[in-house]
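Re: [help] complex structure
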Amino acid sequence: MRRLMAATAVLVSTLGLVSGCGEDTPATDAGDIETIEITFEGGTVTPNGERVEVGTGQPVDLVVRADESGEIHVHSEPEQEFEYAAGTTTLKLQIDQPGVVEVESHDLEQVIVQLEVS
Amino acid sequence: MNGDTPFAHGIGGSADLPISPSLAIAGAVAALVVSFTVLAVAWRTPRYDEAQGGRQAPPWLDSLVGSLGFRAGLRVFGFVIFVYAVVAAIFGEDLLTNPVFGIFYVWWWVGLVPLSLFLGPFWKAISPVRTINLVFARLSGSDPEVGVFDYPRWLGHWPAALGLFAFVWMELVYPFMTELGPVRLWCAIYVAVMLVGGALFGNTFYEHADPFEVYSSLVAKLSVWGSRDGHLLLRSPLANLDTVVVRPGLVAVLAVLFGSTAFDSFRDSSDWVQYIQSTETSSYLLNNVMLVVFCVGTGLVFALGCVLTGVETGTRRWSLPDKFAHSIVPIVVGYIVAHYLTYLVEFGQRTLIQASDPFSNGSDILGTGDWSVNYWLSYHPTLLANVKVVAVVVGHVLGVVAAHDRAIKLLPKRHQLTGQLPLLLAMVAFTVGGLYLLFAA
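Output below.
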């Protein structure tokens, strides 16, 4: 049992060392704007649920080209809602809290992108 | 968020970041190495014995826990929350800010785990259905322990497995999970079944068939609290775990718990979202099928891991999965901690804030209405990721040790080591699969 516990202790501490190198680094590219192009056309939307990595606090522009007006929900903390009109609209958002945030078309009930905020 | 979204988002906002690949690999390697180390160096005679071991809790604690006032206090505590939730569910607004959703999906479902892990069989102590059954029995002058019939042995934990599945289906698949009507209906059916069952079979019914009591009492086997001859006992979690009573359906209970949690990670992965959004097949159907596949798959992998061993003639091979089932309890709990930690901490707080205004009319009954949620955990993603992987690996280690001890008790001598290998592989599969989902989803 002692040997077992020793082995476990070594492994768990190794785990700590291996993972310790990635200390919480603040977003380095906070200044650059991440632009995501979103197209609504005939009841469909692209992109379709893809992951996009952004930094915490990094400005994100959703450039929406739509054939009719609608609403986009961003499931961050707190939740953000945006309306867009037919034509091209740029929606500006920014997320400070790390996590995976879904950006949804309220009208199509579809995930457009998952923002991986870190 | 509106309740009419077909994604069954739940009440959560953002989800945890995926863990880094290096961390996932480190965890998987640790799990593998520990597994074989246990096999190679651990004891060769069974260590855990229900009848012995453990030490008596201090007398003052024993008499406190055994006292009528303490027990009644816990029952009152559980019943007050129950009544509060019922009132909010009946008279509250059908809004996501109604605390009923948080009480149902966060406090009840997830809060149960740490409470049972630290305090022992918590739901049994506060269960409002047990309380109602107790009151009915007292009023009619009968014994709450016994009912009209004896609980059928063959039924075991199967009703609990079914109940747990009904809950995870509601939580993860049902599109209207954040509307008041369905949550009310679910709870009404639960209470009705529990009361009828209690009247028919007495308290035995709750021990076997109440999904929450079975869940809570299984997790409580990882706590340090045991009992013998009515006295409180302190024992090591591994020795405590060995006292899990083997009943039919135990594997099914654990398969639903692990499978559904894995499915919860999986359904949020970008690949799955892209797939269900681009196919013509109904996403509701696909999610239903996948939930069943995850639960049944977990059960099958585990059962196969248990039966692929040499046994003495006369031992029924298919009785082995239930006999080894206690050993995946720590794996399940470790994974559930990893999966739900942020959710419990952050949405648990939010529920406490919402609970102060149960009718959504701006009142502040509990005085918690102006508190704000502390998101410290989410702002420390590296720490969070480490905690998650450590929870999974520790769960795995405990599971492997528990399985080893049971194997030397159950398997014939010449199969004791080789006979454990398939089960070990099944456990590694769960742990690595769990880590993969934490990394990929």
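The two ends of chain A are 41 Å apart (CA to CA).
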